[in-house]
Amino acid sequence: MSTVPAARAWPAEGLGRVPYWIYQDEDIYRREQERIYYGDTWNFLGLDAELPEKGDFKTTFVGEMPVVVTRDEKGTLNCFENRCAHRGALLCLKDRGNVKEIACVYHNWTYDLAGNLTSVAFRRGVKGQGGMPEDAEPGSHAPRKFRVTTFSGLVFATLSETMPPFERYVGPEVAAKIRRVMKAPVKVLGGYSQVLPSNWKLYFENVKDTYHASLLHLFFSTFRLNRLEQRGGVIVGGDGGSHVSFTMMKADSSGDEYEKAGMRSVSGGYRLEAPQMLESVDEFGDGVTLQILTVFPGFVLQQIMNCLAVRQVLPKGVAGTELVWTAFGYVSDDERMTELRLKQSNLVGPAGYISLEDGAVTGFVQRGVAGASARASVVEMGGRGVESNESRVTETSVRGLWQQYRRHMGL
Amino acid sequence: MDVELQLTVENLLARYVHALDDNRLEDWPSFFLEKGRYRITTAENYERGLPLSIIYADSRAMLADRVSALRHANIYEAQRYRHTVSSTLVERVDASTARATSNFQAVRIMRTGESILFASGRYLDRIRLNAKAPCFEEKIVVIDSRSVDTLLAIPL
Questions:
Q1: What is the pTM of this model?
Q2: How far is B141 from chain A (nearest CA, A)?
Q3: For residue A173, which phi and psi values (nearest 5 degrees)?
Q4: Which among A83, A240, B71, B134 counts the fewest CB atoms within 10 Å?
Q5: Would you say the ipTM is above 0.90?
Q6: All domains in chain B, ordered by first residue
Q7: Which residue, among A94, A356, A362, would best test binding to B if mutated, counting the most B CBs under 10 Å from its CB?
């Protein structure tokens, strides 16, 4: 018996409700591939600094589509489908490397670094025998090419011919907050990925949900790193699906709203034996200790104190998400600064004092709603609309995600 | 082969994984020197010479913080590991220090009954022999995969 309801209509209450079938339905998942990832969106591919040399390539995904990202002999970044024009085999079988051209292992059809088919093995046959017909057009099924844009060292791609420039897509306020973090040339410190047992939208909602941060993540609130009575805010940009939330530490940290409410977040008496990890440097000169930024449909830029990272959110089936983390610092960092960033990396990733809970909690929702396809979650903190807000006791940026999502999906 | 040294190191490794698998996390820092270093990283980061870790501590105090966060702060579903350590190669550095490379696998058992091969990899250890009991000066856990299922709470 299917748990998916016959109707696919969004609840009449609008953005304040999210129907649970949206995380479960195979048809919805298929439609997301076409309308979101292969449609009018800018998809995150990685950092410009990951491909410094001509000939460098990496493989990644746009939605479920495997893609190759290259820096060609002119120094230009390209992105194309990782699929041979001939029989559809993967062209690149490595995560990264440096090459002059790309040859399919199956029948040796060869491509340049922009994804153009340059030669077909035995096209004219051997000794007048075999080969392709005169009128064959072997390039007619060539891998699809993306339009690539680089914004502040971040690389995005789209299949759409009609996409506005990246800055217009995310809006000026979000763009400014990207520039704030990507202020100087960066160097990659490393990466890893995390496989989450939940739909990609549950993770993307989680990143946008400023309300949960100090309630789920006890590590934050106990050390007063992110208590909601501190100064901060939420900015919703673009069509709603991009956002920035930020916190300014130290202001109002004497508040006792949590103690008064008797919340689990503050059990008291918990101290670090080695607090040096949290001695952060105000490297942006604006007192903002935490900035989380997202761009629809799958990009996260994170500044948690001096721990900087990008995260790529990749859908892996209806109930699976791969979260690809790349941590970075600046080329100008000295050893001490790098060490500080590496220590603060204990806050994030699969074992992060903060982030490990996000890995768990999205799975709790996926499992919790297994029998509730026809029901909906309630997203009414901070009202029912989508607007920027000085309070972080709001779900405005979660509603913003659904606003943009529904326009793409026609729901 | 220095049989006594081999057995000393293997015994340390056995006591170490039993402490983790028996949920005696409070004992975990005591397997390290006060200024002991502990890292979990991926084979990819390790081979590319990239310094990022999944967990990084450069003192016993940082390890103790990890334990108190797991006990009192962090939210995760009840789970345990079952470690298997094998193929330990030991090399004496000097009178008081040895280096060891071992293979390990950790099965993760969730409260739901699910058991998976959660991690495989290498322990790259530098061991101090003349302390009260042999203990780690440095332990680098290099996991073979670049990807971790859901979360990594209990150390490896």
A1: 0.94
A2: 14
A3: -70, -45
A4: B71
A5: yes
A6: 3-143 (3.10.450.50)
A7: A356
